[in-house]
Amino acid sequence: MNIDRNLRTPARLLLAVPVAALALSLAACSASRPTVDQVSDGLVKFMESQGQGDVFTEDAADCFAGYLVDSKLSNDTLNYIAQGKDQASSTDDADLTQKILQDNYDECTA
């Protein structure tokens, strides 16, 4: 009987449990909806990267972020925005983002 072989199988199974848990937790993180504060921070970060941080206030970012998070935008697109990226998960999301920003511009920048 090969004792070494019998010990490796349980060890492999035990190693598979944390790997599977890590994969599931990473998948859950990417699918979760960011908060208004996270989206607001991402908007500020993006505007600063474009050289417009001094004209785009945190109040405006908070206002826009509220509308964005309450919309039908996908979690992926909102996560891109929260990271300060000018990116959308689909053309529909890109169009909806533009519409939300345009429709609420007067209110959020007043």
From TrEMBL:
It comes from the Bacteria. Keywords: Signal. Residues 1-30 form the signal peptide. The keyword Signal applies. This is DUF732 domain-containing protein.
